[in-house]
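step: validate -> pass
step: tokenize input -> pass
step: predict -> running
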Amino acid sequence: MSVLALSVALGISGLFAILAWKAHAAMTALRANLAVEAFFDPGIPSSDASAMVEQKIDPLAGIARVTFISKEQALSDYSKASGENVERVLGMNPLPASVKLYLANPTAQSAETLEASLRTVPGIQDVRGDFPLLRAMESRSRALDRMALLAGSLLLLSAFFFAVLAGRHSFEISRETLHTFRLLGTTRVTAAAPIIIASTLAGIAAGFAGSGWILLIHAQILSAMSDVFSFPLSRREILLAIGSLVAVGGVIGMGGTLASVGRRTPIGE
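step: predict -> pass
step: emit ->
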């Protein structure tokens, strides 16, 4: 019963952690593709705008990569998208040169800081970015992290207290054996060692069983929902999950047994 209860708690906690990590990674990747775009004055030639980018914008902190778009490229892209020849109608190229900036740390605060820095660059007429979307994605990512942390912590805490009760029960049913060991002159640690080792092994077994629950749910449920959302697990992620659950299970099994030792337990008498 101890192994079964602990395996369920570990499996669900691990599943929450993996889901939160995958969602966090996906949102981080989406935020990384959100660019802050700065537009130069239309009267500034592309060569001058490119020089300003190299001198004033490239040195700014917190930028992962920079993509410069010349006036000519902007006109070509617009003509292909709309099918209109604006330069023939107006007799000039009215589109400005621009630069797209991708953040190294895509957060709302870093985006707003970059926006403020760009507005101080000479020749920059306008700065645009989907800042509300960035803030919403950042907020949802934090909410998922908090939810996974809260649910996982409650489950693991419940498993720990269950391990404490299981440890007390093990000491109670081994009262006569422990008393015999003490009469033979063994120390408290030596007398309790078999129970502690057994509880630790039970926690390790629960970690493997919890990993099995995760793989079963992934294979039977999450894989069937691949048309709604993709939830791939690499070999490295699977091994990391198994190792983490086995380690946590062993710690809970051993820690719960050690915490159950008190004056009222046979080993504490």
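step: describe -> The two ends are 27 Å apart (CA to CA).
step: cleanup -> pass
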